[in-house]
Amino acid sequence: MLPVLKGVAASILFISYPYMVYKGMESGIDWLAPLIFSGVFLHRAWFARTLPKRVLNMLVALALLLGAYYVQSVTAKILPVLVQLALMVFFSRGLFGVKDLTFIERVVLLQFPESPPAISGYCRRLSWVWSAFFAFNALVSVLLATAGADYWWALYNGVLIYVLMGVLGIGEYIYRRIYFVGPRILHQGIPDPVTTMKALFINGRKVFLEMKER
């Protein structure tokens, strides 16, 4: 139960990050958000199980701490870019190896262990779509962080990204029902949205933790 609560708290903190940065810049304390997240990464470094992860989290914490002192606004606005790039790398893992499985493939296999090869091909193409989506978000975030107004940076990273994620997710679900209705590849039937979200939350977290340990 505790890991779930920690995950929820981390998600809330991350979602509210653009708002925190925007209000901080309005109040002249744009160093506050990087300082808070420096503490978060120090906490992650302290409880990291392996030395490389401990060192990586410590370096991120140090970079945020230095940025909070020297280049407050740029440091505050660059963190969402790093997150989008990390998601891009995570979703693209397995795409460049014939026998490697992507995150989406692993999640689907937990729900449908005997799924045919056509499902795997669909999941790999979907992994490309999500990877491109996160790369696009990173590019837009960089442009807004360096040349855009603070308001538009906060609006995109705090609201529009999640709206686009919802649109992409709903669009994929509709396309999936059209794509698989003819061949009847899934003899179990295509899960409804609620079942899909439950499976994604349960299996996705399990797969994420497994891939994170590799």
TrEMBL record:
Cell inner membrane recorded as keyword: no
This protein's UniProt keywords: Membrane, Transmembrane, Transmembrane helix
Transmembrane segments: 7-25, 31-48, 55-72, 78-96, 128-147, 153-175
Transmembrane as UniProt keyword: yes
Protein name as it appears in the record: Intracellular septation protein A
